[in-house]
Amino acid sequence: MMNDSTPGVSATAAQAELLGRYASSLTGVFGAPSRVLVRGEGVHVWDADGRRYTDFLGGIAVNALGHAHPALVAAVTEQLGTLGHISNLFTSGPQISLAERLVDLAEAPTGSTVFFANSGSEANEAALKLARRHGREDPSGRRTRVLAMEHSFHGRTLGALAMTWKPAYREPFEPLPGGIEFIPAGDAAALEAALDETVAAVIIEPVQGESGVHGWPAGYLQAARDLTRRHGALLIFDEVQSGTGRTGTWFAYQNPAVTGQDEPVVPDAMTLAKGLGGGFPIGAMISFGPQVSDLLTAGQHGTTFGGNPVATAAALAVLDTIAQTGLLEHVRDLGARLARGLGAVDAVTEVRQYGLLIGVDLTVPAGAEAPVPDGGLAPAVVRAGLEAGYLLNATGPSTLRLAPPLVLGEEEADRLVADLPSLLDSAL
Ligand code: PLP
Predict the structure, then answer these.
(1) Cα distances (Å, whole numbers) of residue 397 to 123, 138, 343, 369
(2) In this structure, which topology does domain 70-324 adopt according to CATH?
(3) How many Å separate Cα 297 from the centre of its chain?
């Protein structure tokens, strides 16, 4: 078994052949991949040349338990061998158990319900339909607006895209579904000014991930809760990236480091995906309380695969393992350790850390003569990382976003901190 990383070598041999076939057989919407990955175990993956990488990307906040975790493999294998798919004309034990568990972990009130989808975008499509239903329940007929935050990311399907801020993602596909407005992120006065009886919902990521990991001023999420309640609008939290233990609590709105208060900021609806299935595709929307749950009635929404027995069994295995192995506390401790280490590196100007969701702003180190590489320093560090045996991710020219498996160990965390200066050197 090859399990050593071999720094300094680009893709060769078997990989070059596969990458060539990729180029002629798959759409280029994700840009050219630089590696073909063939195997994973724990916090490591191996490429087609047998080289090992430590995974600080985690499938972009997906592989909560790392790769090939025995509990996840066993749950999926057993469920697939027992009952693999049934359609939503029926239900299954894992589907019911997962819905109950999510409502429980979310501390949602009695009468809360779960709708299952297959991805974050789909979960947010459901949330947007929920918002529309809420608006149409208003006898005035004027509750048509949905407010989203500047710098938000909610997905790439049309409804989710309409709530996503980034112009480069939106403009090629306009016109998008209407009625959605963006307000300055984290500005309670701006939110108050935008809210009135014409707003059906406000959607917020409790920590914005794709924007480079940005939280909110202390008290902002509670202010959003109070203001939406006062104006009869739904408060929807998109926890696709920040949920399922990623910040060190089950959901970010329960995390004092995110909200600035001990009590959770309870939304009217929450969307989940990514880490929930630990790598198996699943999304979910939780409606808090009977009034919100009753907004979507039979026949108004659905998907063929959502809540599939295998996907829900996978998610149950993820939640069980997080609970049974004390991962939430581990995420809080290790995240803080990693942030401390990274913050002490010369070229790091800011670290924004919420558990193991970490944004790292970089600048050219003092004394370095080289210019900033084309495309920015952070993407160059990602490329240097690949050569040195790391999977990293940049959300912009100067920002790394780390979202490693929640099972990352101290040794790997410390090693990245120790290696970052040399990655920066190689990047320049
Ligand atoms: N919402 C948030 C906050 C996300 O970070 C993402 C993906 O990055 C999505 C929604 C979209 O999820 P998916 O890619 O599973 O459709």
Answers:
(1) 29, 45, 18, 18
(2) Aspartate Aminotransferase; domain 2 (3.40.640)
(3) 28
Q: And the tokens for 156?
A: 């790439």
- Of 154, 169, 276, 393, the one to substitute when testing ligand 1's pocket (max ligand atoms within 8 A of C-beta) is 154
158 CA to centre of ligand 1 in angstroms: 13
Determine the distance separating the centroid of ligand 1 and the alpha carbon of 153, expressed in angstroms: 7
- Report the C-alpha gap between 287 and 269 in whole angstroms: 5
**Averaged pLDDT, 353-357:** 98
Distance (angstroms) between ligand 1 centre and the Cα of 1 equals 35
Mark 282-311 as b/e (b = at least 16 C-beta within 10 Å).
bbbbbbbbeebbebbeeeebebebbbbbbb
For a mutational test of ligand 1's pocket, the pick from 205, 238, 241, 253, i.e. the residue with the most ligand atoms closer than 8 A to its C-beta, is: 241
The CATH architecture annotation of domain 13-68+326-427 reads: Alpha-Beta Complex (3.90)
Q: How far is CA 50 from the centre of its chain?
A: 29
**pTM of the shown model:** 0.96
Task: List the beta bridge partners of residue 287.
Answer: 113, 269
Q: Tokens 């350790």 identify what position?
A: 337
Give the model's confidence band at 299: pLDDT under 50 very low, under 70 low, under 90 confident, else very high.
very high
User: What percent of the chain has pLDDT above 70?
Assistant: 97
Looking at 269-409, list the stretches that DSSP marks H as alpha helix, in order from N- to C-terminal side: 289-293, 309-324, 327-343, 377-388
Helices (H) and strands (E) in the chain, counts: 15, 15
Cα dihedral across residues 353, 354, 355, 359: positive or negative: negative
Amino acid at 64: A
Domain locations in the chain as residue ranges: 13-68+326-427, 70-324
Query: Would the CB of 240 count as within 6 Å of ligand 1?
Result: yes
Q: Which two tokens stand for residue 68?
A: 């090939």
Fold match flag (13-68+326-427 vs 70-324): no
Pocket lining: 403 vs ligand 1, CB cutoff 6 Å: no
* Residue 385 pLDDT greater than 60, yes or no: yes
Q: Is the pLDDT of residue 115 over 70?
A: yes
